[in-house]
Design brief:
This protein is an alpha/beta fold. The chain has helices spanning 6-9, 12-15, 42-52, 66-76, 89-100, 116-123, 141-151, 171-180, 192-195, 232-241, 249-259, 263-284, 307-316, 341-357; strands spanning 29-30, 83-86, 106-111, 127-132, 155-159, 184-188, 209-214, 226-229, 289-291, 298-303, 319-320, 322-323, 333-337. Bound molecules: pyridoxal-5'-phosphate.
């Protein structure tokens, strides 16, 4: 029997990382992960039931995801050569860093933003450069371009709308950056369906633009399907390192079914957007709460008391949200996903109670 010290074998840059962590207590109401709280539409369940018996699960899935790409290409009016399917859009973020960055090089993203940009970079030995957002959670192109000059990043990542602040950055400023920056610009539009604002039309004018979308936020988080729209040349480089069967058969077939019956999801998205407005309004009426404007399916808010205490009290009341108070720019901030009307009511009542008694 050999007793090897495994810690000595692990790369230092991996040892220093912390695994991406999401509190996932078993609460009745889960508003912490920006999922869609609505269960699948009954018509979709019926379609899935029918399809499951026809799946050839003894065979590998289509490595090219041909049928799924056909549907996405039609919906977005792009060619299938411009599409790449990921096991969630997370995987595509990682593939992009692998394709475009050598260890020691940099990527740049606004801060605060989605934690995975930094985590993926560090895991690959790439330097994450965080560019501080202003008080409105936005930025000016000139200042960003100066930071670019200083750090020479290979990729810029913009979460649009931005997680966790919820807003879409000023598109005019992003365009200015696109025009002048000579590296790759990734517009991560995971929350596109709630904002309906996109850089897709800009793809024809900018050869360095990549757009990422996800099915996770609109009701299919469990399927793990994300896709990228990129110049065909970028897609073929990604395909050289993408694992051949990264998208499984169930995910491909079910997401084809959903995307070809998108009206069933669209109804839920419509209610979530309405509920976002209502939640935002109501949050503003609770003493001690400042809610930030959101274009996504979640709202960032600041509490006049310790956010970890609010988090705990909400969890005791059966409601899980995300406590972001550990981030230096997000002291006493929490993020709540817009749920179904009943869930939102429970959240508002419980939060109102917590703010009154503390
Ligand atoms: C901005 C952003 N991009 C990407 C993702 C990852 O999405 P997926 O589930 O498709 O990997 C998330 C998930 O929270 C996100 O907030």
């Amino acid at each position: 029997m050999s007793q090897i010290n495994l810690q000595e074998l692990v790369k230092d840059r991996i040892k220093s990382l912390k695994a991406y962590h999401v509190d996932n207590f078993d609460t009745e109401i889960k508003l912490h992960a920006n999922e869609n709280s609505y269960p699948l539409a009954p018509d979709l369940i019926e379609v899935f039931r029918d399809q499951i018996g026809k799946l050839t699960l003894n065979r590998y899935p289509d490595p090219e995801c041909g049928a799924l790409k056909d549907i996405i290409a039609k919906r977005l009016n792009v060619s299938t050569e411009q599409l790449v399917i990921g096991n969630g859009s997370d995987e595509l973020l990682q593939l992009l860093v692998q394709v475009f960055c050598d260890p020691g090089e940099a990527i740049l993203f606004p801060d605060p933003t989605f934690a995975m940009y930094g985590l993926i970079a560090r895991g690959l030995g790439v330097k994450p450069v965080a560019f501080p957002l202003n008080e409105e959670w936005d930025f000016e192109a000139e200042t960003l371009l100066q930071t670019i000059e200083e750090h020479n990043p290979r990729i810029l990542f913009f979460s649009y709308p931005n997680n966790p602040t919820g807003n879409c950055f000023n598109p005019g400023e992003i365009l200015k950056v696109l025009e002048r920056y000579e590296g790759l610009v990734v517009l991560d539009e995971a929350y596109y369906d709630f904002a309906k604002s996109t850089f897709l039309p800009e793809m024809a004018r900018h050869s360095n633009l990549v757009i990422l979308r996800s099915l996770s936020k609109i009701g299919l988080a469990g399927l793990r399907v994300g896709y990228g729209v990129a110049p065909a040349a970028v897609v073929s480089e990604i395909n050289k390192i993408r694992l051949p069967y990264n998208s499984n058969m169930v995910s491909q077939v079910f997401s084809e079914a959903v995307l070809s019956r998108f009206h069933l999801v669209e109804e839920q998205i419509g209610v979530i957007i309405e509920e976002r407005h209502r939640l935002q309004d109501q949050l503003g009426k609770i003493p001690g709460i400042t809610a930030f404007r959101s274009d996504a399916n979640f709202i960032l808010f600041r509490t006049a008391i310790d956010s970890s205490r609010v988090f705990q009290k909400l969890a005791q009341g059966g409601i899980l949200v995300r406590d972001l108070g550990g981030h230096p720019r997000l002291k006493n901030c929490l993020r709540v996903t817009v749920g179904m009307p009943g869930e939102n009511n429970r959240f508002l009542e419980t939060l109102g109670g917590v703010m009154q008694t503390d």
